[in-house]
Amino acid sequence: MSKWMKSFVLVSAAALVLSACSNGGSKSDDTATKTDTEATSDATATDTQKADDAEADPAATTDVDTAEASDMTFPKSAIDPNISGEVTFWTFLDNKKNDETLTKAFNEAYPNIKLKTVFVPFDDLHNKLQTTLAAGKGAPDVALVEQGQFPRYSTGGVLTNLLDQPFDAGKYKEYVSEYNWNRWSSIDGTQLLGMPWDVTPSVTYYRSDIFEELGLPSDPDELGEYIQDPDQYFELAQTLKANNKYSLEWRDSPVHWFGDMYGYFDKDLNWVRNNDDFVKFLDISKKVTQLKIAPHDGLYSDKGKQRVKKGESVMYVAGTYGARDLAANFPDLKGKWKTTKAPFGLDFGFGGSTFVIPAQSQNKEAAFAFAEWITTSEAAWKIEVEQSVQPDWKNITELDWYKNHTNEYLGGQNDFAFYSSLTADLPVRRYTTLDGLAWPLWVGEVLNAIDKNVDSKTAIAKAQENIEKKLKPEIDKLKKQLQG
Questions:
Q1: How far is 196 from 372, CA to CA, in rounded Å?
Q2: Judging by beta carbons within 10 Å of its beta carbon (0-12, 13-18, 19+), is residue 166 exposed, middle or buried?
Q3: Can you tell me the distance from the alpha carbon of 296 to that of 65, in angstroms, rounded to the nearest whole number?
Q4: Which of 36, 340, 394, 482 could form a disulfide with 224 if both were Cys (CB 3.0 to 4.6 A apart)?
Q5: How far is CA 124 from CA 130, 133, 231, 251, in A?
Q6: Residue 387: which residues within 8 A CB-CB, separation 6 or more?
Q7: What is the spatial distance between Cα 78 and Cα 365, in angstroms, rounded to a whole number?
Q8: Mean pLDDT of all residues in the chain?
Q9: Cα–Cα distance between 31 and 326 in angstroms, integer?
């Protein structure tokens, strides 16, 4: 056993998702500039078989490989492949070439549906969608909605329940993680309001060459196991700091990461961020501050980029889009970065998006045909993975071309398979319209506790008292809405 592989203790954890530190939080990285990842696309079915299946059923054209890989058990769409109509789709992803490729592939499955893709900038899309949903007119047939914005539309009956007929999306539940299925459900969990799409588990990116030079564990599996123990993580972090290098971006990150596992409120709108584990992780964040191992600045700020180029910021936690962003910003460091598990025994999601169908749409079946196709079909995913969109569909992640993918920027690491191995451990949490209101209040209490060294148990209890008091009108209003 390596000298680094000491016994470790996994920190207990429960449920999470939106990851944001006191940089004010961040939108899903779906909004970031896209760069190509290197995806192979070896077909497992012959062209002849595809042609035969297409003749029998146009919807099967793009799903032959998927069906074969899953022994023909993957559910078949309930939507007639000959359905016709026009579907307007709003997206905040600005990529015309990608849109054209997706549209062409979609029309191979549904030749009689005219897909009109409309790019709307991130903030404008979510604001305009809320306005049109409230007005009862003007909304698209389908919209791509980011995780942090989703609660704006999850109440009031403004979205279509995809569990209803003729959509019958419930048949897909076993093919995605429990976490990903539930985050697009209504607060009480009785409705599915968005079609599950991508998943973004949290991981650690690190400079393996520098770790090796300093005698630190540099193998992904070895390092991933080592940093689960907070004591071992801090030992590593101090070694880096002694060499003028940082292991984190934000000093208050650990307690927020843990909070992302729980969310803010449960399905009955009870505050959930008050237990001994929160006390423990606030103490961990305090230690990060005391040891000065985080500059409290982002990796992609102007100063942050300089730190990376100088080899000072050599380790950071992000979603699985991190390799794409590193490659876009630091192409000269190709082959020097690798990825492993998030530290401290944490398993939390780092964003994601869903496809929703407004209740006011007059083309719901055709709209669902698109939402279903883009989230479940192999043809769509072969395009989407090139944009660093991580699938959470077993019929895709079990295919050879996906499992065998390697990332040259990460030194040839088998990245897709590693990312997918993390999704089953992401705990379920609920998203509510109260979350965005609670966030700044929560951050204020956390930073006050860190800066003034307030007893962590006292600080966590005070945060609950303060937030429940200030948000009581909104909490009561939402409870009434859910009951009525």
A1: 9
A2: exposed
A3: 46
A4: 340
A5: 10, 14, 45, 32
A6: 34, 36, 37, 93, 95, 98
A7: 10
A8: 87
A9: 15
The string of pLDDT tens digits covering residues 376-434 is: 999 999 999 988 899 999 999 999 999 999 999 999 999 999 999 999 999 999 999 99
Residues 317-343: tens digit of each pLDDT: 999 999 999 999 999 999 999 999 999
Provide Rg for the chain, Cα atoms.
Answer: 23
pLDDT tens, residue by residue, 186-219? 999 999 999 999 999 999 999 999 999 999 999 9
Say how many C-beta atoms besides its own lie within 10 A of residue 138's C-beta: 13
Say if residue 44's pLDDT is above 80. no
End-to-end CA distance of the chain: 60
Burial (CB < 10 A; 0-12, 13-18, 19+), residue 472, is exposed
For 67-71, which contacts have Cβ atoms below 8 Å and span 24 or more sequence positions?
68/44, 69/44, 69/395, 69/398, 69/399, 69/400, 70/394, 70/395, 70/398
Integer CA distances (angstroms), 114 to 85, 92, 166, 251, 369, in order: 6, 20, 20, 50, 12
Here the tokens at position 88 are 């307007």
Q: Give dist(CA 412, CA 405) in Å, integer.
A: 9
355, amino acid identity:
F
Tokens representing 129? 């969608």
Sign of the torsion angle spanned by Cα atoms 404, 52, 379, 169: negative
pLDDT digits (tens, 9 = 90+) for 247-300: 999 999 999 999 999 999 999 999 999 999 999 999 999 999 999 999 999 999
The pairing of strands 142-146 and 85-91 is parallel
Return all residues near 359 (Cβ < 8 A) that are at least 6 apart.
Answer: 133, 157, 158, 159, 160
Q: How many Cβ atoms are within 10 Å of 137's Cβ, its own excluded?
A: 8
Tokens standing for residue 122 = 């991130």
What is the spatial distance between Cα 19 and Cα 4, in angstroms, rounded to a whole number? 29
For the whole prediction, is pTM greater than 0.90?
no
